[in-house]
Amino acid sequence: MKLLSILLAAVLPIIPYPQEVTLNKGFFNAKGASFTCEENISQEEYNKITLLAHELSAHTERSSSIAKTIMLKESAQKGAVKGFIFYKDSSIPAEGYRITVSPKSAQIVTSDYKGLLNALSTIRQMLPPEIYSSTGKGEGRWAIPCCEINDYPRFAWRGMHLDCSRHFWSVEEVKKYLDIMSMYKLNRFHWHLTDDQGWRIEIKKYPLLTEIGGFRSGTAIGKNWQNAKSDGIRYGGFYTQEQVRDIISYAAELGIEVVPEIDLPGHMLAAIASYPELSCTSEKQEVWTQWGISEHVLCAGKETTFTFLEGVLGELAELFPYEYIHIGGDECPKTEWEKCPLCQAKIAELGLTDKNGFKKEQYLQTYVTARVQKFLASKGKKIIGWDEIMEGTLEEGATIMSWRGTKGGIEAAQKGFKAIMTPYTYCYFDYRQSNKKDEPGVGNVLGYDAVYKFNPVEGLNETQAANILGVQANLWTEFIRTNEHLEFMLLPRLQALSEVQWCNPENKNLGRFKTSLKEYHLKALDFLGYNYRPLD
Ligand code: ACM
Ligand code: ZN
User: Fold this and answer.
1) pLDDT digits (tens, 9 = 90+) for 124-139
2) Cβ count within 10 A of residue 459
C-alpha cells in the first residue's frame, strides 16, 4: 500500500493520462467528504455523482447524500465550500473537465454530460483501486493528491468495434463491454451486426433475417479460415429491437454513441440464406459455417435489392438516433456480378466501363454505395464505410474507416473526406499478443505496447490531419467463443488504445503507462471482474 501512495503522489495512475497535470503538495481526504452540486444540475448528472458518493460511502462509511446549492461556483471559488464540489463552466471544452484539488476540496468543473463522466472516471483513478470493488472496505488510502488537471480529448471519435455476427454476445456481455469502454473515455461503439455467419438484429419488415439468418447449422472447427469441418452444433442469436433500444440507452448513459453496421453488398450470406432472391442466382444458400469471404453477394442489378436495403436501413435509421450508419463495403467479390445478366444490364444502363485501374463491376459497387448514401441522407444520416468504398468514385460526405493499413485514411484525408483510423497493423484486437506458441489470436503479433505506439496522423499535414476524426480498434470474433476470451483479447490493449485516442503526443509515455497498468489498472480490472491478458 505504501508503494501505491508514493506512486499516487509521484505520478497519477490515470489512463488515458490527462493533457495538463500540475501536482501540488498535500492531500484531500475523500473519506467522509461531503458532496455538493449546483441546484440546477440535470437528473442524469446527479445520478452519476450519486454513484460515486455511494461507492465512496461503501468503503468509508460516509453518508452518500448530496447537497444542492445555488451560486456554487462563486462560493467554491472563494473557498467557502468543502468536500467534492461539482459545477458547470461553458469555457470547458466538449467532453473535457477541470479538477482542482486542495486539502479542503475537490472541485470538478465541466460543460457537458460526457465531460462529467470523464471527470468521474479520472477521480476514481485518483482513489485506490478498491473503489471498483463492491465488497469489502479494502486497504486503500482514501486521499487524493492536491493538483490541478485540465483535460480534454485529442480525437472526437474514440471507438471500439465488436463483431457480434461470427460469435454472438448477449445484452449483458455487450453492456459489460460498454462499461469498460466508458471507464477509459471511449465514446463510439461500432456494432458489427450482420455478416455471412449470422444476422443479429431484428428487422420487422424482414422477419426471416433473424428467424433463418440468425442461426447457422454449425461452426468451423479449429483455426482454419477455409475448408474447415463444421462442428454441426446449431449456433446463433439476435437482438430484438427492444434490446437494441436498451443497449442504445445504456450506452448513452455511459457517454457512448452506438454506430450500427450493416455490411453490404458483400458479407451478406445470412441475408441471402433468409431471402435467396437477394443474390444474382436466387439459389438457396445456408448461413455460413465457414470463415472467410463468401462469393455470394447482393445482386446489384435487381431493383428489389434496393427495396430490401431501404427497408432494413429505414428501420435502422429509426432505431439509432445518431448521425452515422456504417454500411460496410469491404471485401465484396465480383465473381457473381461478372456472370449475372441483371448486373451486366445495370452496368450497361449506367454506362459503366473499366477505367482508372478499376473494373466496371467496381463502379457498380460505387453505384450501390451512392444509392444507399442518398437514401440514408434522406433520413438525416451519414454513411461510414470500410476503405474499399473509395475504390471507383465516392460521393462527398462519406466517411472512411481505414483498415487495410493507414493508406486509405491518408488518401481520404488528402481528398477532403473524413476518416477514422483503424489499421490492422495497430488496431485489430483479434491478433495475437505475443509470439508464444500457445498465445491465442490470429495474424501478426500486436501487444499492447505496439498498439500504444500508433500515431494516427503520421504522413499528414495539419489540414489533412484535421480530417482524421479519430481512432478505433476492431475485435473480430471468428476464433473467440467465450466472454472470458473476448476480454483477454480486449484488455489491456483497450487501455493502450485509449491513450492513442485521448492523449496529445507529448503526454504519451509507455513507461508511465506500463507502471500505471501494473500498479493500478490490473487491480481495478480484478475488482471489476474482467479477464485480461497478463503482462509478460
Ligand atoms: C475488415 O476487416 N474486413 C474490415
Ligand atoms: Zn446480379
Assistant:
1) 999 999 999 877 565 6
2) 13
